[in-house]
Amino acid sequence: MKKLWYSRFTDAVATSVEGFTESISFDKRLWPYDIEGTTAHVRMLQRQGIFSDGCVVSDTPT
Asked: Count of alpha carbons within 13 Å of 56, Cβ hemisphere only?
């Protein structure tokens, strides 16, 4: 799979840099908590009147 920055650089990225910037192994374990935090944030914004009630937060993923 090509990296996101593939078209910007011509030199190969050092293995040490790729290892340091890699986050998928963490992200795939944290995504449920990320969604939970985002949902709580949106609900708070609704209560504060920043988001309208039309901005629906679902309890079930689509």
From this structure: 6
Q: DSSP readout, 3-15?
A: -TTTTT-SSPPPH
Q: What is the pLDDT of residues 25-51, one digit of tens each?
A: 888 899 999 999 998 998 899 889 988
The domain spans of the chain are 23-50
Q: Per residue in 43-54, is it b (16+ CB within 10 Å) or e — as a string?
A: eeebeeeebeee
Confidence bin at 11 (pLDDT 50/70/90): confident
Q: In this structure, which long-range contacts are made by residues 1-9, counting pairs with CB atoms below 8 Å and at least 24 apart in sequence?
A: none
pLDDT band with cut points at 50, 70 and 90 for residue 61: low
